Amino acid sequence: MFDIGWSELLALVVIAIVFVGPKDLPKMMRTAGQYVAKVRAMAREFQTSFEDLARETELEELRKEVSSLRGHVTEPMRSLQREIDKPLKIGGGGAGAEAAAASAAKAEEERAEPLDTSGVSDGIADSIREAEAVEAHGAGEPASVGSSPETKRDGE
Fold this sequence. Notes:
By secondary structure, the chain is mostly helical. It contains five helices and no strands.
């Protein structure tokens, strides 16, 4: 650090003994050592604060980079979601809307025709008829209820 050799060190010791005296020399050396320790501690603290500042700056840059990458990665998914939601929100136009309208019309035709209940037991056929009546009239009790499965079980 200061590049002091043995000859310079010996000269400093001789000068210190002459000017300070042998009696006060240990006290002076202890005080000098304490000052050197304080200076080193302050230098260490200064260096650590700069390293912490550099780490915080680096972390902030990394956070910004990660958030921008996250935006770039999620943007295709968002645009895909907007494209999927577009025919549903507009309500017309596009192949998706035509397919939805065609499937809704086909489902309406199937609901209009009663299901073929031949080949199934009477209890299952009654349940199917009740379900059709509920779908036709909305939620609640159907208008014409035949024999319910509960009464049939009680009678069996």
